[in-house]
Design goal:
- With 121 residues, the chain is an all-alpha fold.
- It has a domain of 71 residues.
- The chain contains 2 helices and no strands.
- Helix 1 runs antiparallel to helix 2.
- The protein starts with 43 loop residues before the first helix and ends in a 15-residue tail after the last helix.
- Its main location: cytoplasm.
- One of its GO terms (cellular component) is early endosome.
- Keywords: Cytoplasmic vesicle, Endosome, Golgi apparatus, Membrane, Synapse, Transmembrane, Transmembrane helix.
- Involved in trafficking and recycling of synaptic vesicles.
Length: 121
């Protein structure tokens, strides 16, 4: 003999008293806000540092080239090359990050403020 089945749902209510409604066919359970990307935060400190590096590097490159060409008289001419090398090493990261910041501010495809390291940690 088979026991009689009770019509009881998981919550303890009889299943004939629970009302179900069908989901709309166009609704897939997701909302658009889940997929909206928030605008990236502008890293002002990193852009200020890149500007500083760009300006110092430009200044050192100009001074180094003037020292190397002889426009500025120097007592020890062997110290002109390191000024030029340090200027180039400081100029390059500043120029690179300023270029990314400029293109990201103009909205060019492939450039974002997320590509610039942020120092607000």
């Amino acid at each position: 003999m088979m026991p009689a089945r009770l019509n009881v749902s998981v919550g303890g209510l009889p299943s004939n008293k629970v009302k179900y409604s069908r989901l709309a066919d166009s609704e897939d359970g997701y909302i658009d806000l889940q997929f909206k990307k928030s605008p990236p935060k502008v890293p002002y400190k990193a852009i200020a540092l890149a500007t500083f590096l760009f300006l110092i590097g430009s200044f050192l490159i100009i001074i180094g080239s003037l020292l190397l060409s002889g426009s500025i008289k120097v007592e020890y001419p062997d110290r002109t090359i390191p000024v030029l090398i340090i200027g180039v090493l400081v100029f390059l990261p500043g120029f690179y990050h300023l270029r990314i910041a400029y293109y990201a501010s103009k909205g060019y495809r492939g450039y974002s403020y997320d590509d610039i390291p942020d120092f607000d940690d």
